[in-house]
Design brief:
The complex is a heterodimer of chains A (605) and B (295). Chain A is α/β, with parallel strands linked by helices and 605 residues long. In chain A, 35% of the residues lie in helices and 19% in strands. In chain A, strand 19 and strand 20 form a beta hairpin. In chain A, helix 4 packs parallel to helix 6 and helix 6 packs parallel to helix 7. Chain A starts with a strand and ends with a helix. The relative contact order of chain A is 0.11. With 295 residues, chain B is mainly α. Chain B is built from 9 helices and 2 strands. Chain B has a two-stranded antiparallel sheet. In chain B, helix 1 packs parallel to helix 8, helix 2 packs parallel to helix 4 and helix 6 crosses helix 7. The mean pLDDT of chain B is 87. Classes of the chains: A alpha/beta (605), B mainly alpha (295). Chains A and B meet through helix 2, helix 3, helix 4, helix 5 and helix 6 of A and helix 5, helix 6 and helix 7 of B.
């Protein structure tokens, strides 16, 4: 008997004509690790929330949900609270109390467990998760990853049979995310708990799950083991293939879906390397490197050199850009449009900047220097706490360094007046885009940004222009907080663009958004660069920077450790690089993206 | 810095400070109040460290303010020091009463400060878990939310500053508008977060009958001993007060009778009761010094 059994579940929200879930039939077996994936808005969260009565949304529902053979409505709240654990997306809002020990005991208190058992379970869970060192701490002193782990421990203390996780790692950085998913996997293997996860970051989970279920617009379009699903998606030529892990994408890029057995497909970098070696076992590849025809990999693009450019058509809309093959959008050293000639001032020059927040605290920025050319995308990567976000704050004059100079568009930052700086020079998109929304509709948020002296029709024209660039024209009347992650990101970007900044600073723009929105975002960046704007982004997302940045700088210990084009940078790095690079570095020299690897493989065949 | 008295059972600490505040409130005798103020200061110093007393330095101006302003509100008393504003008198008795009242106010503030330092949020929630369980949980949640709201507001302000909508350097009307925007953003965010928190609570079974409470505290033997000592000393103080050892008169003339021999016991009990936390803390420090010197 399946642990969870959904039979022809159809659900629509009130006042909605199209159902959010259409005829979903799914069986989750005991002890299985299942991942649910799909584009943003496909119904994953709606489906998961139906698996627990207190969380199920209101609406018209038909079909059956069986938990251990019993209809879910007949399972009482006590049993459901105990047996079905649910971890949500937001690490901050999920935690109820202010102390770690209280949070761990919260569920047990609610269930009325006696003192002795409670103490045992809390002690056991804290030790299993390694939380015993921060048992007495306040919750506000914990990082996002720790809070999410705390929520998980709190739920596991109640000994659930099923663990349901709704995008648990979307707000976490890659290392915390990977730790969290490893812990979940440990729980599934060591305790035999059934786990159902929703994820966008499929690289981490795809290899460890038992079954994958893919949803699109409320319907299941593929389900099975990971390799089977890969085969099914490629056979359908579905969009979701762009979300699959790099080794799978490379495999199906090189081979046609109908020519190969799905079971041969590699899922991890390790399997990918083995497959790639097998491909060139008899004869070594003749073409080993991507030839970009201008810069050799390794020359810092930050020095600025004119690259032969293929300017996109000035009327190109972002949808045109997206409709092109991903390869054309992805970074090729030498095929970027340059806003101006080489003698125009640098967009940003940071020289020998030192910064600390207080006199007796250690330096956050130590001797930081970098320069950004106009009309390029400059990505800053690096681990947590290295000072990347602080650097962005320095660039928008939020905090001042005690040593060193910052020049923006040729002038010292100190010489810029604040009103001047933010009306056409610099603007920053914060890590949490929702921090920008102040009005009940997107349209009003954009109208708020218009200066008082602009006539109404010109203002509306500007708004329409920006909405077109960011592809949010259909969202103008929605409440900003009702939008999905990717839509919020674009709406916040639209608001920032209303300042008409020449330099756009973005703090973690790809946090918590799926691959499709990342591509849309990249399309927006292309359109902006065509207008001559500069984009500086700080990101943990190595894959995004590899595909879409013009220069990459690695930030470590308060200063820039290295700067280069993505090609040069990632092909020289061993760990801090894309999956495609790690998979192919033993065969090819400088393949950084999946498209590079596929191109080289095909050229050699 | 963890003082010894903090480690006792929360109920012991709670009653200690509540009774200290009560005892300080009911007397007007300068000797008694002097004892109370001194004991409160030493308790605070031994709990949080002598440097923390700087935080209480506002008590000195408060003391003088209350004392010197009292005669302005209270013109009773026989000895006139001077007259002002055409006829109003500033009397010595009123000034002395002012000093005594100021001492009482300062003593209460200091004891409240000690209360705050020793009884943290989780101890208070623990104490009220059976009497008002929802209130205790709400207290816990408020304590989590308030710093979180402060942090979020500053995030909003920074984000808006970086797109040119800063709060400072504008006309007054602009400042008000920006402030209102921040408030409405915070409200919207708080409500969204509250929905998630409510879901998280209900998902873990909040609302089911028979809720228990995880207790970190055990009522040990030494708690029993200290509670017994406290009870005896408090009873002694109350007896002393009812016998009249704290009797004072300020109006129309000052009359502070010397403390009768039979009333001295009451004073000693009062002093001993209020000095109890200090003594416990100092004893622990002494114990460590002695044991370390043996090493």
């Amino acid at each position: 008997m399946a642990h969870f059994s959904l039979e022809s579940l159809t659900f629509s929200y009130p006042d909605c004509e199209t159902p959010s879930l259409k005829d979903v039939s799914l069986d989750v077996q005991r002890g299985h690790y299942v991942v649910l994936c799909g584009k943003s808005g496909c119904g994953k969260t709606t489906l998961l929330r139906h698996l627990k009565s207190v969380l199920a949304p209101y609406g018209t529902i038909s079909g059956k949900i069986l938990f251990d053979g019993v209809p879910l409505e007949e399972v009482d709240q006590r049993t459901q609270s105990e047996k079905i654990g649910f971890v949500m997306q937001n690490p901050d809002a999920q935690v109820v109390t202010d102390k770690v020990w209280h949070e761990l005991a919260f569920g047990l208190e609610s269930l009325g467990v006696d003192q002795r058992t409670m103490r045992l379970r809390v002690a056991e869970m804290a030790s299993y998760f390694g939380i015993q060192h921060w048992f007495d701490k306040d919750v506000r002193d914990l990082s996002g990853g720790q809070k999410q782990l705390l929520s998980l421990a709190s739920i596991m203390a109640m000994r659930p049979d099923v663990l349901i996780l709704d995008e648990p790692t979307s707000q976490l950085d890659p290392i915390a995310a990977s730790d969290f998913l490893n812990t979940v996997r440990k729980i599934n293997i060591e305790l035999g708990t059934t786990v159902i996860v929703t994820e966008h970051r499929l690289e981490d989970v795809f290899a460890s799950v038992d079954r994958v279920v893919v949803l699109d617009k409320g319907e299941i379009i593929a389900q099975g083991t990971p390799r089977e699903v890969g085969g099914q998606l490629y056979a359908q030529q579905h969009d979701m293939t762009f979300a699959l892990p790099a080794p799978l994408r490379i495999f199906y890029g090189v081979n046609d879906a109908s020519d190969v057995v799905a079971a041969d497909a590699p899922l991890t970098v390790r399997e990918g390397r083995r497959w790639l070696s097998g491909l060139f076992a008899e004869e070594a590849p003749t073409v080993r490197a991507i030839d970009d025809g201008s810069l050799s990999p390794g020359s810092p693009a930050a020095e600025g050199g004119i690259r032969p450019s293929d300017s996109p058509h000035p009327d190109a809309t972002p949808s045109d850009a997206i409709a092109q093959e991903p390869r054309a959008i992805s970074k090729r050293a030498g095929k970027r449009a340059r806003g101006q000639g080489a003698d125009s001032p640098l967009a940003i020059r940071v020289s020998d900047v030192w910064l600390r927040y207080e006199r007796d605290l250690p330096d956050v920025l130590k001797d930081t220097s970098l320069s950004v050319d106009q009309g390029t995308t400059f990505a800053i990567v690096g681990g947590n706490g290295t000072g990347k976000s602080t650097l962005l704050k320095v660039l928008c004059a939020s905090i001042k360094p005690y040593r060193g100079t910052v020049e923006v568009l040729g002038r010292n930052l100190k010489d810029w007046k604040e009103s001047e700086l933010f009306s056409g020079a610099v603007a920053m998109l914060p890590q949490d885009p929702a921090n920008l929304f102040a009005k009940p509709s997107v349209r009003e948020d954009l109208e708020e940004m218009l200066p008082a002296d602009v006539p109404a029709d010109e203002g509306q024209a500007r708004i329409a222009d920006v909405a077109e660039t960011c592809d949010i024209a259909h969202l103008m009347d929605s409440h900003p907080l009702d939008l999905s992650g990717g839509e919020q990101q674009r709406a916040a970007l639209a608001k920032v663009l209303m300042c008409e900044p020449r330099i756009l600073l973005l703090d973690e723009p790809t946090k918590g958004i799926d691959n499709f929105f990342k591509r849309k975002l990249a399309g927006v960046f292309e359109a902006l660069k065509a207008e001559g704007r500069t984009i500086v982004l700080v990101s943990h997302d190595v894959e995004f920077c590899a595909h879409y940045a013009d220069s990459v700088a690695m930030f470590f210990d308060g200063s820039v450790a290295a700067t280069d084009t993505p090609q040069g940078f990632f092909s020289q790095a061993s760990f801090y690089t894309t999956a495609a690079n790690r998979m192919s570095r033993h065969v090819f020299d400088n393949a950084v993206t999946e498209e590079d690897v596929v191109e080289l493989c095909l050229r050699n065949k | 810095m963890r003082s010894a008295f903090e480690t006792y059972h929360p109920a012991v600490c709670f009653w200690m400070f509540v009774l200290a505040i009560v005892l300080s409130m009911v007397v007007r005798h300068p000797v008694y109040l002097g004892i109370s103020v001194v004991c409160a200061i030493t308790c605070y110093a031994t709990t949080k460290g002598p440097r923390a007393l700087k935080a209480m330095s506002w008590a000195i101006p408060l003391f003088f303010a209350v004392a010197l302003l009292n005669p302005i509100f209270n013109p009773m008393g026989a000895t006139v020091l001077f007259t002002y504003l055409g006829g109003r008198v500033y009397t010595l008795e009123s000034l002395c009463y002012g000093f005594v009242t100021a001492a009482m106010v300062v003593a209460m503030f200091l004891w409240f400060g000690c209360f705050n330092a020793v009884l943290t949020s989780d101890k208070i929630s623990y104490l009220f878990r059976k009497i008002a369980p929802s209130a205790a949980l709400v207290l816990t949640m408020v304590l989590r939310l308030v710093p979180s709201y402060q942090r979020k507001t500053s995030q909003f302000a920074t984000a808006r500053a970086c797109i040119g909508k800063s709060v400072g350097a504008d006309t007054w009307l602009q400042k008000v508008r920006n402030g209102t925007s921040l408030l409405s953003m915070l409200t919207a965010w708080a409500l969204e977060g509250a929905v998630v928190t409510a879901d998280s609570m209900r998902s873990r079974g909040y609302g089911l009958p028979g809720r228990t409470y995880y207790s970190l505290y055990r009522f040990t033997t030494r708690d029993v001993v200290v509670a017994a000592v406290m009870a005896v000393l408090f009873a002694g103080s109350v007896v002393g007060l009812t016998v009249g050892s704290a009797y004072v008169e300020f109006f129309p003339t000052i009359d502070i009778p010397p403390i009768a021999s039979h009333a001295w016991l009451g004073v000693i009990c009062y002093a001993a009761f209020l000095a109890l936390p200090t003594v416990i803390n100092l004893a622990e420090i002494a114990q460590w010094r002695i044991s370390l010197s043996k090493v």
